Amino acid sequence: MNKNFSFKLHFPILVFGIAAPFLFPGLQLQFATLWVMVLFALTWDIMGGQMGYNSLGNIFFFGVGMYTSVLFQVGQFAEIGAYTAAHGGDSFTFTNAEYYQGLVIGIIMSGVVAAITAALLGWTVFGLRGPYFAIGTLGMAIAAGELMGTWEWVGAGSGISVPVFPGSAYARSLLFYFLCFGAAVLTFVAVQWIYKTRFGLAVNAIRDDEEKAEAMGIHTLRYKTVAWSISAFFVGISGALFGNITGIIEPLEVAFPTVTFGIFMVAMTLLGGKGTLWGPVLGAILFHTLKEVTWTYFLGWQWVALGVLIIVNVVFFQQGIMGWLMEKFPEKFGIVVENKEATR
After folding, report:
1. For the whole model, what pTM was predicted?
2. What residues make up the domain containing 213?
3. What is the C-alpha to C-alpha distance for residues 161 and 90, in angstroms, rounded to an integer?
4. Is 59 inside any structural domain?
5. Between 302-316 and 279-297, two packed helices, what is the crossing angle to 10 degrees?
6. Contact 272, 264 (CB under 8 A)
7. Closest by CA position to 45, among listed 274, 287, 282, 320
8. pLDDT digits over 68-127, tens only?
9. Distance from CA of residue 183 to its chain's centroid?
């Protein structure tokens, strides 16, 4: 991509990200969710866009990160079973130091545990390809939600409450806004760097023709597992942050929301243009904005609006926003178009 064009996107988004919670103090958590959506789209594109493995179960790592975080936040200072018992959370009070220590360790471990889980699962699920891989990962996410809903130690269907933030509601919103914004920026920087390395070339080769990539000596299983682990690491962190924002972790609707966030991360990437760096970012911003507007002003029709958007995108606009821009203005992206008339 042309560096000037990229800078024109970097700068306004960074400025907006820093200024948004002060310009719109009543919408801090909505904007925090926007950055979680950006992170979702960026991480899904690692697999679905750059490597050609369309996962429908990446939301699994969102739930893994969410539960991991709260268990580390609580488990350092209280017995988990007693905390998750009926009204058990009401009997535990965390000091400021305990809260922040638990939060930091919980966020870090949410990414680490999600990445390790992805690496372990990769040795089995990557035996599947095409639609079988997509369905297999979807089943994994659904099964995880059902399993956590029956596990009494972590609250089962009643969920588990997150330690209460030791400060004002404004300070809480501001903290988690910037944590979400920082996580999205870190994810973007990481994937931008990865795509410029030999690793990026290898995963693109897998997308183009996996058999030929193997014949060329590329250890495809290793690259697929590492790519999935990187994606899981950042999604796990987003789960930790979102769990603390919601305040309570319920298995089906909050931790493993396959029919909402699980679908959104795919739809946002397709809207923006999969296989591109900025496509997932733009797709997430547009999709989330439309979602919030319809949820606010057209309640009852929000799913219809999102459904129509997805249908139009898939049927008539498959290249996405960035794909369309690259076709219309190739010179802006450093693409040299050969003049056929001049070469005759």
Report:
1. 0.91
2. 3-335
3. 9
4. yes
5. 150
6. no
7. 274
8. 999 999 988 888 888 887 665 666 788 899 999 999 999 999 999 999 999 999 888 998
9. 10
Is residue 38 within 8 A of residue 284, CB to CB? The reply is yes
Q: d(Cα 271, Cα 286) in Å, to the nearest integer? A: 8
Residue 342 lies in a domain: no
Query: Structure tokens of 90?
Result: 């009401």
| d(C-alpha 319, C-alpha 286), whole Å | 16
* Owner of token pair 């089906």: 252
Measured CA to CA, the distance from residue 64 to residue 232 in angstroms comes to 9
Q: Which residue has the tokens 């009401």?
A: 90
Specify if 341 maps to a domain.
Answer: no
* 164: enclosing H helix or E strand: none
Alpha carbon distance 230, 270 (integer Å):
20
Q: How many CB atoms lie within 10 A of CB 284?
A: 28
Model confidence pLDDT, tens digit, residues 243-272? 999 998 999 889 999 988 999 999 999 999
For residue 340, is it within any domain? Answer: no
Give 338: exposed, middle or buried? Use CB within 10 Å, 0-12, 13-18, 19+. Answer: exposed
* Coil/strand/helix, residue 258: coil
Q: Which of 35, 66, 84, 233 is nearest to 145 (CA)?
A: 66
- If one counts the domains in the chain, the total is 1
